[in-house]
């Protein structure tokens, strides 16, 4: 039973780390697009 709980915690932690990286990457993409629009407007 302890092994199942540990495995579930490790899986959850891995998914959370992957999600953070994905959101961070999306944020950089949006920021980059915003800068491109801003530069085009100048």
From TrEMBL:
Q: Which InterPro entries does the entry link to?
A: Entericidin
> Mind listing the UniProt keywords for this protein, alphabetically?
Cell membrane, Lipoprotein, Membrane, Palmitate, Signal
The species this protein was found in: Sphingobium cyanobacteriorum
Where would one find the signal peptide in this protein? 1-19
- Put simply, this protein is called Entericidin A/B family lipoprotein
Similarity comment text for this entry: Belongs to the EcnA/EcnB lipoprotein family.
- Per the UniProt record, one Pfam family is Entericidin
